[in-house]
Amino acid sequence: MDPVVVRGLSKTFYDEARGEVKAVQEIDFECRAGEIFGLLGANGAGKTTTLRMLSTILTPTGGSATILGHDIAAEPTAVRKCLGFYSATTALYPRLTARETIEFFARINQYAGDVKQRVDYLIERFGISKYASARVDKLSTGMKQKVSIARTVAHDPPILIFDEPTVGLDVLNALEMQDVIREFRSHGKTILFSTHIMSEAEKLCDRIAIIHAGRILACSNLEGLRQVTGERYLEDIFVHYVRGQG
Amino acid sequence: MANLFRWADIRLLYWRELRSALRERNIVVNGILLPIFLYPLLLWLIYTGMTFVSGQTQGFASRIMLENLPQAHQELRKEFERDPRIELKDSQDPTADIRGEALDLAADFLPPAAAAAPLGGNFGVRLTYDNSKDRSSIARDRFEELLSRYRDRYLEHQASALGLSTAQLQQFWIETRNVATSRQMGQFILGLMLPLFLIIMVAVGCMYPAIDSTAGEREKSTWETSMTIATPRANIIVAKYLYVATMATLAGILNLTAMLLSVKAVLAPIMGNSTDEVSFRIPLASVPLILLLTILLACFVAAGMMIFASFARTFREGQAMVSPFYIAVFLPVLFLQVPGIQFTTGLALIPVVNVAMVFREAIAGTFHWPLIGITLAVEALCVALALWLAATILRYEDFLIGSYGGNFAKFLKERLLGGRRRGRQ
């Protein structure tokens, strides 16, 4: 069974101004073990809502999804335990130090091994040693990014969700983020990754789902998408599907 | 229940909150330093203010005009001239000069009333002054004080001429005796001050943590981070609530301790030697009751403030939303400063006010157990209601993720009373 299975997942919001908003409409996909699965879509397409549902921040209004066999609606705590969620809206606690932050997330997310060893390893791995005792609010954006990734993987979850992880980062930090995601894949992690940047999806993802207006329009690897559309570049492939939908 | 609450997680989350809080200046100032130093500082300010006002009034001479002073009482003029606080002046139009602040008071000596006319040396005095001006009012006080002294001496002199002693002239006198012990006096003074300050301090100690752990987290985008933690949401909320209640209790207890340690030293300049006669000690038997009520009060205020603050998206918004509750908590207690107010069943049914009344009585060593029982029940009920309300509100997803745009009143009207259930998990 695939580690992430999504079937008919939907989310409808009620908005005072707009009334009922169907943010995600009956989407289906699955992520295979050890792959980077990309959700590619424009702003407002439904990427973040989908990932928030999978990370149990939001409750679906229809359909279902399982993470390592745990139903996201019925077993939210078990789901959260086996995934790490990273996004621009999940900031770090500003008054904790880098070390305290990583240790807190390792413990609260029930890391099975020796927490101290794990924290030391992550501090070493992400080059945080020099500022491990500094308060997070005193760190630069690049340093915060590293601590943030370290806290995401503090409990060594088998599944990682990255919601537009390079938003707001400069080129070098964005490239470093891509390297880190690749490294996680090489360690056997299953990665769900959302972006609206075509080149990023093209470089990183093993398979891509194109999402637009809350619906998945296509889901395949890059080669498969090229064959179906006859287009070479992902940008053209994306436009092909979105215009076709319109 | 065992699945819902994981105490190991709650403990971790609680320490995370507390550790963060103790690194935040505003929380340390309002929750720890202010409760410790408020009394000494406040009372010192009052003392300094009183000294300043007193110095101001003593620093000027009252300009007084004497008109038609009888020949028999020219000694009185000399008395006025000898007093450095008084300057005798003349005026063509005393009323206009008093209004124009060139003169403070005009004393017109009048012939005695008909019944007193046969007695030699009698006179009446009409004082013209402006009661809306401090200088003029002070001039009147000084004139009356000096005239009263002069009259006593004059009467003694006249009595002596008639062969009467001062004691015979005085006829009767008043002697006062206060049956309250020094401890009772101290408890009376503490009872007036402590409940109000304790309640304010609990609210102040609670306010910043309540806003910081709710609206503050939304503003800093750490709310969503907390929502991704592998523990039931209830644990996160319970840890936050325990943390806010701890800070409120801490503020209350620190305040109480600081008050007991410093009140005598601080009141000494105001009360003069009488502080030697006063003992500021709380009966030991009252301490458990006061602590229990402080904790209950802290739990209630913490729950209330967190509910209001959690509708805000920024710290500033949180302050605005919490302020009405903050005022509602301590405003009724202000009315308890009215002298002679008794602890009744009616007062025991009013939250917070009842706590203040139990504090006041406990400090004096008085225990009306039926009323204390009602107070404990009412406070416990308030805490339970506030927690039920919080749990109900947290079932709404848009509220939980911070996308709900209204305030508590709107939420109450639309969702809880109006029966709309959209967004409920």
Description:
The complex is a heterodimer of chains A (246) and B (425). Chain A is α/β, with parallel strands linked by helices. Chain A contains 9 helices and 10 strands. Helix content of chain A is 37%, strand content 27%. By secondary structure, chain B is mostly helical. Chain B has 2 domains: 7-44 and 182-394, no CATH class; 63-170, D-Maltodextrin-Binding Protein, domain 2. Chain B has 17 helices and 4 strands. Chain B has helices spanning 7-21, 25-58, 74-82, 94-99, 134-161, 166-170, 182-212, 215-219, 223-227, 233-271, 287-309, 315-334, 345-348, 353-363, 369-393, 397-400, 408-417, and strands at 62-67, 86-88, 105-110, 124-129. Chain B has a 4-stranded mixed sheet. The mean pLDDT of chain B is 85. Chain A binds chain B through residues 13-14, 16, 55-59, 76-78, 80-81, 85, 87, 89-96, 100, 104-105, 107-110, 135, 155, and chain B through 9, 12-13, 16, 19-20, 23-24, 220-222, 224-225, 227-232, 397-398, 401, 403, 405, 422-423, 425.
